[in-house]
Amino acid sequence: MSRRQELERHRHNVGEIRNIMNSMKTLAYMETRKLARFLEAQQAVVQSIETLASDFLSTYPGLLEASERLSPVYLLLGSERGFCGDFNQAIARQADAEIDSTGGPEATVIAVGGKLHPLCEPGHRKAEFITGASVAEEIPTVLSNIAASLASLQPANGMALYGIFHGNGEVICQRLLPAFSNHYPEGPGYPHPPMLNLPPAQFLAELVDHHLFAALHTLLYTSLMAENHRRANHLERAVKHLDKQSDALGRTCSALRQEEIIEEIEVIMLSAPSLDEFQPDSGS
């Protein structure tokens, strides 16, 4: 096989890889559009719960009891698949910084995403690993596994839960528990308490559960959308690189083909005199 034929075969393989990556990029873009719809609805749910909590706590501010010694738990949202740059490395770096500053040796880590798991194994002794979501339809299963992990922890002195995830172009550390710690009402409350079917303490406990469920949904949707944005951009750069490589190979193959044609012409021209010797004499 000539060098040109080898390059042609290599160019064909590059083209196939390029088409696969371009399809993956298209799927990532489609996933972000779907997640954007889910995320908008979920953010509205969280906002409604927080508004309700603010109104409720304006009447019962004493129900939020501050605790000095809460066991820190860090929920790290990484990716289950690759082709997203340093997505998981950024989560691991932020987690290390947060744990060193506030968590200490008692911190527990819940790492979500197969690509994130190896980055958490060396540094965190108290760690649980959960398979992440590749598409939006898998998020309810992931959420159920997170809830099971949180329920299995249940420290006696209470839990300070932090979520570390990608959102708004950066890595965010958001406090999830204790709930509503940043939503104290401003100004005087309503003149009359709300009409409840449950005791106020029980109502607040169930409201906290609903808020945590909705907030975790929001974090998972936000993280998966950021992951797919990162993947689409990463694959876009890879496709452009392969296009340039294919074009370069095409030019090289054309140049080699021209050299082959020139060599063929030279061979024909060199053999032309010897062919003339064997031509029959038309005058004899």
TrEMBL record:
GO cellular component, as recorded: proton-transporting ATP synthase complex
MF GO annotations: proton-transporting ATP synthase activity, rotational mechanism
Keyword Transport: yes
Predominant place of localization: membrane
Topology in membrane: Peripheral membrane protein
Alphabetical UniProt keywords: ATP synthesis, CF(1), Hydrogen ion transport, Ion transport, Membrane, Transport
Functional description taken from the UniProt entry: Produces ATP from ADP in the presence of a proton gradient across the membrane. The gamma chain is believed to be important in regulating ATPase activity and the flow of protons through the CF(0) complex.
The protein's name: F-type H+-transporting ATPase subunit gamma
